[in-house]
Amino acid sequence: MYDDLKGKNVLVTGGSKGIGRAIALRFLEEGANVMSISRNIPEDTDDRITYYNCDVSGSNDVKSTIENILSKFNGIDILVNNAGIEEYARLDKTDEGMWDRIMDINVKGVYNVSKYCIPEMIKNHSGNIINISSVQANIITKNAAAYVTSKHAIIGLTKSIALDYAPEIRCNAVLPATIDTPLVRKAAILEVGNNEEKIKDKIREWGLQHPLGRIGKPEEVANTVLFLASNQSSFITGASIMVDGGLSIKAPISTPDE
Ligand code: NAI
Questions:
Q1: Separation of 257 CA from ligand 1 center, angstroms?
Q2: Angle at which helices 109-123 and 59-72 pack, to 10 degrees?
Q3: ipTM of the shown complex
Q4: Choosing from 52, 111, 147, 165, which is the catalytic residue?
Q5: Residues 115-131 pLDDT 10s
Q6: pLDDT tens-digit readout, 197-224
Q7: What are the strands of the beta sheet with 240-243, ordered from one edge?
Q8: 3-178+217-246: which CATH number, 3.40.50.10190, 3.40.50.1000, 3.40.50.920, 3.40.50.720?
Q9: Which residues contact 43 (CB under 8 A, 6 or more apart)?
Q10: Category of 237 on φ-ψ map: left (φ > 0), alpha (ψ -120 to 50) or beta
């Protein structure tokens, strides 16, 4: 479908599960060479994806991993900064450890990996970076101060990269709402406990909040990332693309004809 992605070297952070895994698999379908860095390497991995065990929050770890990648692959054409974590608390309950953990992975992780990929892209006079932010950079839930802040920060970083490295490098952000991944299941368990029926009910309830009536699939985020990575989106940079089933357009206010 996207012929220009064939043979491209693509690095996806957090490609071991959830959205990152779907993105990695979707690039494979287009004939790209796919590498992924994540904290754990899955056992049921697709052996066409080259996995690297690396913590995106550690600058030395990232530096040596990117060097290792570049010794095997001839450059990195496309970078997808997807790795991220979510933890829940309002500000006064957010201890310094939680704040630092979320900022280090969600924001500094994007800085670290981009920092070591961008010089390669500059050398090649071309590159494409896609950052996975969240609908929470737009509308927000309660009790997620650090996460919400981190996802807003990613929008700023996306715009900075887009402006500073145009026209050779494009950079855009994708803002998903609730997507069916281990992260969302973990959030449901925190709310309703480890009970399969209650978890399903909670996820269904979240889905009904979205105008499209369901939560999203990782593949639906992946399809948007592929579009942004391809030449089909050649005049889009610095943008924030919602993949949210309409969640962010809905005001929670009733109207007379309801
Ligand atoms: P997940 O928990 O299912 O997968 C997260 C991935 O990130 C895993 O591969 C994990 O190994 C990797 N990772 C986490 N910390 C890392 C670190 N320090 N270094 C390297 N890799 C690390 O999460 P999910 O749901 O797939 O989320 C992916 C991204 O999408 C995250 O940035 C998340 O904030 C964002 N997102 C997810 C939504 C959802 O509803 N699932 C909604 C909006 C945004």
A1: 40
A2: 30
A3: 0.99
A4: 147
A5: 999 999 999 999 999 99
A6: 999 999 999 999 999 999 999 999 999 9
A7: 49-53, 33-38, 9-13, 78-81, 127-132, 169-176, 240-243
A8: 3.40.50.720
A9: none
A10: beta
Q: What is the dihedral of CA 108, 114, 116, 121, to 10 degrees?
A: -170
* Cβ atoms of residues 106 and 154 within 8 Å: yes
Amino acid at 228: L
Q: Which atom in ligand 1 lies closest to the alpha carbon of residue 221? A: 30
- CB count, 10 Å around CB of 33? 20
What would the DSSP string read from start to end of 38-79? ESS--TT--TTEEEEE--TT-HHHHHHHHHHHHHHSS---EE
Q: Choose the residue to mutate in 82, 105, 136, 243 for probing ligand 1, maximizing ligand atoms within 8 Å of C-beta.
A: 82
- What number of other Cβ atoms are within 10 A of residue 184's Cβ? 19
φ/ψ of 46, rounded to 5, equals -85, 120
Q: Which residue has the tokens 């860095």?
A: 37
Is 147 tagged catalytic? yes
Residues of the chain with CATH 3.40.50.720: 3-178+217-246
